[in-house]
Write a structure and sequence with these properties.
The complex is a heterodimer. Chain A is about 65% helix and about 10% strand. Chain A is of the alpha+beta class. Classes of the chains: A alpha+beta, B alpha+beta. Chains A and B meet through strand 3 and helix 19 of A and strand 6 of B.
Chain lengths: ~775, ~270
């Protein structure tokens, strides 16, 4: 059937190209509908229980998206000039539309509750900007006398202040943060540094960077690959078929994705970068083979037909195995990864289709005379690559036993390395360390209680359960326990508020800085609090029916490992100090959500990789009609994967989202070399009977095509190292390593195995 | 071109005319300042004293409710001048017996005292009445006891009907920075009670809306017995019902003292 296709395509090249281009226009027309998704919550299914819980608790406790401004003055903020600037900045921020005025937390807007000469005084910390040293001293005492605000709106060392700005709509965070930045630039002096943090800022920046990656890094990688192809093929016109193939595959895959209304997530933004090198692979084989055959056939069409005939099977199997590898991601419980896997798989099969249509058609349109001249001249020359491959072949053949022993050692070391792997991720670290988001993150975590938010929700079985003294003091104890953990910078809860009221009502007597023992007292203190603040002051900490409370846990780090430790330590505490009757606790918050999806991903990926390993193995059995050969064909990729992951373990690089994603698709990629190698080897056994001659044959055209592919992929992914988002960097580096390992195993380990057991493995071909 | 110019001039003229109409009305009758001052008397100073049972429902955006039930006594000492308030809370159950007293002085901050029965303590409280909430409701203390008319500059915008009643529509802009940047009041020409008020925040956006839902004539005093304050930005609202409204009861002056905070005057609060 494919043979017929080649016949038709080579007879009507122009029609073929036109038809494909018309279809491509349809896909390209979908592009303007693009929607970007940077919400980390979308890593989980809509109905995933932890996500549902998080959504509900955010609503219940009126938790809004938060922008955080940090202002740092090396000379300290407690002087009239700096305080005046801070006040002006805050006043102007309140005027920005979309800012929830009454919920802004800062020196200028937050109420302090104190006791002065027996009177309970409720006052903004900085209603008026203090001028005299005495007034400044008073402000300092007020802030540092209220532990609720220390490390929150001022740093312990008095050098930094922050303003917490809740916004009503996340979609407007970009505009609001721009306006905030304008205010900061206008009002602050040059010595005062400001930092803008908070999830909405990170998300917006991330969305922006994603476009940059797609618009700059991907084309850059494309340009780089073009240069590599030019080096390999030495003639510009030969770049057209593979580049067309890659470009069309990207347009089809992205067009379909956008057209089907899937938002572009960090994962799917990487689709072009993944597709480009993979889409080229088949075409490099076609061109390599075409070059080698043309001088003896001397007819474009006949050469193409002959070339394609030998490549139908390997091209199909290499494409389908890669597609299966990616499609196996559909088994993951993380929607963006599923979408990514399926659409890359679609792109790969589209590229395979173009290799059978557009690519031969373009070759047909090349000038026959020029082609002949070029290719004949080319055949005379022996390139550096050829010489390299020849000695590599000799080495593999001569030292086969040494190679096998060496390989086993590397494998063992690799397994040891894998055992060292840390499963860990932190989406903030998806920005490079020098990125302003990372710098803001670092500075804010140095000065304040921590920018990574987690919530511990305490739930009772009836209304007003939280007002029970046993529950309130348990919350207090739990908080103390959490604050003793190094990673936890600060906790805040309803218990802190009750304690503060108790303390202030008793004329700031230290012995009343505690949770009251009577139920009425707690109820009346909370009532008192509602008489002196805003109606929604307590909302963040207690629900409307006082059945649930929310402990804010600010962490100085957002690594999954750190979150897990805090979580485990909490359960440990609960085991030793049983919860009051009818009370349950549950973790939530973004830092926790990140931990949840990371967990899901690790096991999802494991499932995916095992699944695709099995499917690829079946495909190989089908392809080679031999279980033993199928096992051999799986060797290079197993070796490559184990070595690559072993290396990650030894390097101490965290097993994070991008690494996890690489694992399942590395399978589909790494097997390609083995398929081509073994297919050619089988043909070789039919032609030659001498192991050495076969080896020498293998290290000519077959090894050349494999090397070209390895070079293109290894170097083609390198521009990713310059990306500003670390997932791209990781993917680029990992693929380069993986390609080198699978290239070496295919061209060193496989020949060594073949020298020792080749005859037995290809018994059928040898006898026939 | 000429036509456009002509239209422009007509537009300008009619605009000017529209602006002149209320100005005339004001000159013929009352200035905006006077209307507000009169309204304040009708709203906050009806009778010499007053006793009411107030039912408040604090309702959040999800429709969940908190209840406040209290008896309030008020005594006036001079027209638009000093006042004293006494409040006794019946509900919620865990605050029953809490009492609260306010001495209102138009010229300066209020004095407030709270009695907390659980610890048998009377505490003086100093808090800004401009923005602090009244018992967790959408009303501020200022909304409950009034704001001095001279704190704002008032302009009569227009006169119009609201729910069939003739109203003055007055814009009030605070002279000094305040929680709101603009207030627009619809004041009933007959009773001088505010039927509706809109509050605009620092972002010049509407955030709170007051509405009088029910007005009854009690002992000759038109009284708003049903009212609501909505925060349109948060979705929170407070429904208030006045029950058993009585005027001119002759409430004794000594009721408004620390002694009665601790031992509420049963005669009045029931």
């Amino acid at each position: 059937m494919l043979h017929k296709l080649t016949n038709v395509v080579t007879r009507f090249p122009k029609t073929t190209i036109s038809l494909v281009l018309i279809a491509t226009i349809f896909f390209a027309l979908q592009f303007p509908k693009i929607k970007i998704d940077t919400d980390p919550e979308n890593m989980l299914e809509q109905n995933q229980p932890d996500r549902v819980f998080y959504q509900d608790m955010k609503k219940e406790f009126d938790i809004h998206d938060l922008l955080v401004v940090g202002i740092v003055d090396g000379q300290g903020i407690f002087n009239p000039d700096t305080l005046r600037r801070i006040a002006r900045v805050t006043d102007d921020i309140l005027k920005i539309k979309g800012v929830i005025i009454e919920d802004v937390v800062s020196l200028r807007t937050s109420d302090n509750v104190t006791s002065e000469n027996g009177t309970l005084v409720v006052k903004r910390f900085m209603e008026e900007v203090p001028q005299s040293p005495k007034a400044i001293e008073k402000l300092k005492n007020a802030v540092y006398g209220n532990s609720f605000f220390v490390d929150k709106i001022v740093s312990k060392d008095g050098k930094a202040t922050s303003i917490y700005i809740p916004i009503s709509k996340k979609a407007e965070s970009y505009r609001i943060s721009e306006e905030i930045e304008r205010i900061l630039k206008k009002e602050l002096s040059p010595e005062q540094k400001y930092y803008l943090a908070g999830l909405p800022v990170a998300e917006d920046t991330f969305g922006h960077e994603m476009f940059v990656q797609m618009g700059i890094t991907a084309p850059l990688a494309g340009f780089f690959i073009m240069l590599l192809l030019l080096l390999l093929f030495r003639k510009g016109v030969f770049l057209i078929p593979p580049m067309m193939d890659a470009l069309l595959a990207i347009i089809w895959a992205m067009g379909l994705l956008i057209g089907l209304r899937f938002p572009v997530h960090i994962m799917s933004s990487m689709i072009p970068i993944f597709l480009m090198p993979i889409a080229l692979l088949d075409d490099i084989h076609i061109l390599s083979d075409f070059f080698d055959r043309y001088p003896s056939i001397k007819d474009k069409r006949k050469t193409i037909i002959a070339t394609m005939k030998d490549l139908y099977r390997p091209m199909f199997f290499t494409s389908i195995t890669s597609a299966v590898g990616f499609a196996s991601l559909a088994m993951a419980d993380i929607p963006p990864i599923r979408v990514f896997g399926l659409f890359v798989a679609f792109g790969i099969m589209a590229a395979w289709f173009f290799s059978h249509t557009v690519v031969p058609a373009i070759i047909m349109l090349m000038n026959e005379r020029k082609l002949a001249v070029f290719l004949e001249r080319r055949q005379q020359k022996r390139s550096f690559l050829d010489r390299m491959l020849k000695s590599l072949g000799n080495f593999a053949f001569a030292k086969s036993k040494v190679i096998l022993i060496g390989a086993s050692i590397i494998l063992a070391v690799g397994i040891i390395g894998i055992k060292q792997i840390h499963i860990n991720d932190n989406p903030v670290k998806w920005f490079k360390p020098k990125h302003k988001i990372r710098i803001a993150d670092k500075v804010m975590n140095k000065f304040f209680g921590g920018t990574y938010m987690a919530y511990l929700v305490v739930k009772g079985n009836k209304e007003d359960a939280i007002k029970e003294p046993a529950v309130m003091s348990y919350i207090n104890k739990l908080e103390n326990h959490l604050e003793n953990l190094k990673i936890v910078g600060k906790t805040s809860s309803i218990a802190d508020i009750v304690k503060r009221i108790n303390y202030v009502l008793h004329n700031e007597n230290k012995s009343f800085d505690s949770v009251p023992k009577k139920r009425d007292e707690i109820g009346q203190y909370l009532f008192l609090f509602s008489m002196i603040g805003d109606p929604n002051d307590l909302d963040n900490f207690i629900d409307y029916g006082a059945q649930k409370a929310n402990i804010w846990v600010q962490m100085k780090g957002g690594d999954n490992i750190q979150m897990r430790r805090v979580e485990e330590s909490t359960y440990d505490f609960i085991k030793k100090n049983p919860l009051p009757k009818g009370i349950t606790v549950r973790w939530s918050g973004l830092t926790y959500i990140n931990k949840v999806w990371q967990n899901l991903m690790v096991f999802g990926m494991l499932k995916a990789i095992l699944g695709s390993f099995f499917i690829v193995f079946l495909l190989m059995v089908f392809e080679f009609r031999s279980i033993r050969l199928a096992i051999v064909s799986m060797l290079p990729l197993s070796f490559a994967i184990i070595s690559s992951y072993g290396l990650i373990g030894f390097l101490g690089k965290d097993y994070d989202m991008p690494i996890a994603v690489c694992s399942s698709l590395s399978l589909g990629m790494a097997i390609d070399f083995a398929i081509h190698f073994l297919q050619r080897l089988r043909a070789g056994y039919k032609k030659y009977n001498n192991a050495e001659a076969i080896n020498a044959y293998m290290f000519q055209e077959p090894a050349r095509a494999i090397s070209r592919n390895a070079i293109v992929i290894t170097f083609g992914f390198l521009p990713l190292l310059g990306a500003t988002l670390t997932p791209y960097v990781t993917v680029g580096a990992f693929f380069a390593i993986l390609m080198i390992f699978s290239f070496l195993t295919t061209l060193v380990l496989l020949p060594a195995i073949m020298r020792l057991w080749g005859k037995a493995l290809f018994a059928k071909e040898v006898s026939g | 071109m000429k036509i456009i110019k002509g239209l422009l001039i007509i537009g300008l003229l009619s605009n000017m005319l529209l602006k002149l109409v209320p100005a005339f009305a004001a000159e013929n009758n009352l200035t905006a300042e006077k209307i507000i001052a009169k309204s304040r008397l009708a709203f906050y100073y009806a009778g010499n004293d007053m006793r009411i049972k107030i039912l408040m429902e604090l309702i959040n955006k999800d429709g969940r409710k908190r209840i406040r039930e209290l008896t309030m006594l008020r005594k006036d000492y001079e027209e638009s001048g000093n006042q004293k308030y006494f409040m006794y809370f019946h509900k919620p159950a865990d605050v029953k017996g809490t009492t609260f007293m306010v001495y209102k002085y138009p010229g300066r901050d209020d004095d407030r005292w709270l009695f907390i029965p659980a610890i048998n303590l009377v505490k003086r409280i100093a808090a800004n009445d401009k923005y602090s909430s009244f018992v967790g409701s959408d009303f501020t203390y200022e909304d409950i006891s009034g704001r001095k008319p001279t704190e704002d500059t008032h302009t009569l915008l227009r006169e119009e009907k609201l729910n069939g009643k003739d109203c003055f529509v007055i814009e009030s802009i605070p002279r000094e920075a305040s929680v709101y940047t603009k207030r627009i009041s619809w004041i009933d020409k007959k009773t001088y009670l505010p039927l509706k008020e809109e509050f605009y925040d620092k972002q010049n956006e509407l955030y709170r809306v007051f509405e009088a839902l029910e007005i009854k004539d009690i002992d000759g005093f038109p009284t708003i017995t049903g009212r609501v304050m909505r925060n349109v930005k948060t979705g929170h609202r407070t429904d208030v019902t006045f029950q058993d409204v009585q005027y001119n009861l002759g409430i004794e002056d000594n009721i408004f003292s620390e002694r009665y905070l601790r031992r509420p005057p049963l005669k009045w609060i029931r």
